[in-house]
Amino acid sequence: MLRRVRVEGAAAAHAARAFGFSRPAFYQAARSFQSDGIAGLLPAKRGPKGGHKLSDDVLDWVRSKLESDPSQSTQALADMVLDEFGVEVHPRSIARAIARYEKKNALTSSKPSIAPCPLDAAARYEQLRAGALDGSWPQHMGLAALLQAGMRAWLEHIARPPRPPARPRATPRPGGLEALVTDLVLASALSGARG
């Protein structure tokens, strides 16, 4: 839809209607594409992204209390948050926030993050699209990833550094038992051909 407007020069309302979107949805997609590239068009989690009562300040304070006394219950922490900040928070909300924090820190320390979307992703997509339409797409452009797993997999594919070409394997030389069996087979074949 965005391509039809940007590259082919179609009117935004016509392109949106052709793809089953409203005109405001087109402009929202255009803003997302302008700010984040192709990655901005991928679906994202809707709704609030965090607890509105458990702000960063409150969570930092709760974590400091837990560091000083790890044996404190979440009910005790909820009571202290009410006294300190005047915010009534359910103990289970505190437990979930702490678990999210620990999980996030464990993931960021042990596993590298996904590489950011390359700046030339739109140009590479256009090259892949043009090649797919005329049947001459270059190899290793990630067409299989795009077709089988979608846009996110393709973006991850093109963000990875290219692999070096595979080195040819040397043919193994027979030795030991293999050499003995080979000699016996050849000897029996030669003796059968003479006799």
Shape: flat
Structure classification? mainly alpha
Number of domains: 3
The helix-strand sequence is HHHHHHHHHH
How much of the sequence is in beta strands? under 5%
Q: Please describe the biggest sheet, giving its number of strands, its sense, and whether it closes into a barrel.
A: none
Any low-confidence stretches, pLDDT <50, length ≥5?
A: none
Helix content: 55-70%
Distance between the termini: 79 Å
Tell me how many strands there are: 0
Rg, please? 31 Å
Tally of individual helices:
10
Overall mean pLDDT stands at: 79
Care to give the gist of this entry?
This protein has 195 residues and is mostly helical.
Helix-strand layout with pairing:
Layout (H helix, E strand, L loop, with lengths): L1 H5 L5 H7 L4 H14 L19 H13 L5 H12 L5 H20 L10 H14 L8 H7 L1 H9 L17 H18 L1
What this model shows, in words?
- This protein has ten helices and no strands.
- It folds into three domains: 1-44, no CATH class; 56-110; 114-160, no CATH class.
- The chain has helices at residues 2-6, 12-18, 23-36, 56-68, 74-85, 91-110, 121-134, 143-149, 151-159, 177-194.
- The chain has 195 residues and is mostly helical.
- It is flat and about 105 Å long.
- The model has no long low-confidence stretch (mean pLDDT 79).
- 9% of the residues are buried.
- Helix 5 (74-85) packs across helix 6.
